[in-house]
Specification:
By secondary structure, the protein is mainly alpha-helical. The radius of gyration is 15 Å and the shape is elongated. The chain has one domain: de novo design (two linked rop proteins), CATH 1.20.1440.60. It contains 4 helices and no strands.
């Protein structure tokens, strides 16, 4: 996960969302929070003090990505952003969720052996 992923999309689309009444501003705020957190949690996981700490932090990143995907679905339903952009961001979030889920599962299995 790099800085070029979901959080950058939020920066680019913030004005488009924020310019649309309360619902758009609220959604922009939610996306702002949820798109920045996965990268921060993953970065913390990279410096984890133990395997269990790593698993915990990867799961937190995964949780935040799921929240991001939820807000992207809301944006899609409300047609607040172009559909092709939303599809790209949703697909990326889904791919990252799968990667982090597998990573947490593998690390968890390694600790139980």
């Amino acid at each position: 996960m790099s800085c070029s992923s979901s959080s950058v999309y939020r920066i680019n689309f913030g004005p488009a969302l924020g310019g649309r009444a309360f619902a758009g501003r609220h959604l922009a705020d939610q996306l702002s929070r949820s798109t920045k957190a996965p990268g921060a949690h993953y970065e913390e996981a990279r410096g984890a003090e133990s395997r269990n700490d790593f698993v915990h932090k990867v799961k937190l990143a995964n949780k935040e990505l799921r929240e991001t995907r939820y807000w992207l679905r809301i944006a899609n339903h409300r047609q607040l952003l172009p559909a092709n952009d939303l599809d790209t961001m949703t697909r990326e979030a889904t791919e990252l969720i799968a990667i982090l889920t597998a990573s947490a599962k593998t690390a968890s299995q390694s600790t139980s052996q």
